């Protein structure tokens, strides 16, 4: 894997050069084996937490891990284009707009002993800016190459904190163009619900049940690209014990293996569909 600056990453994307790299500041990774018509993203996969923030943080490492989305990059790592965050959302949240990307409190608990200095804030927000510069270049290249693009925005959530039965998979569609893409979203939800998972885990799937797809990653791409669909795809943390932090690698691997088939199928269905040009594009 190369270590590259943002300008070099963007240059390679514009030239459609396959590569795998970590950003110069180690804040995100990007892998492009081929310039395929779909992108996989895992913005909350990261767990890194800048050392200069350690003593000022009131949340333990476990508390941070509990709210992150571990293994979401691993679930899609075999696909041609994968971009993923390396840093914890507790440092800055790639799924929030810049003005709210740095938490003051998190899930009802104050995050910092003392307010962050402007220098610390600027360092974190610079990483946020760099990530979205690359996202912009990447989506632009795929949309220009194929006329449209589909992005699989992978997340996970803690099912044990809910006091009702919740689905294994949740698809958030509140901020996509449902007139154009509602049928594609329904199809994706059905594919996810048909998975066969180990250990007796049942796979169920619902749309806008636990989350509605209000993340910045989806909103940013949707607002800046006319013909790109982002599918905010959440798996409940059935692949780990969210209370102890133990991972179940056999479940992660099963999800990865089935997504190897399902994601390309969904991308093909999207690109074969004429729903994208209902507005005359």
UniProtKB/TrEMBL annotation:
<protein>
    <submittedName>
        <fullName>N-formylglutamate amidohydrolase</fullName>
    </submittedName>
</protein>
<dbReference type="Pfam" id="PF05013">
    <property type="entry name" value="FGase"/>
</dbReference>
<dbReference type="InterPro" id="IPR007709">
    <property type="entry name" value="N-FG_amidohydro"/>
</dbReference>
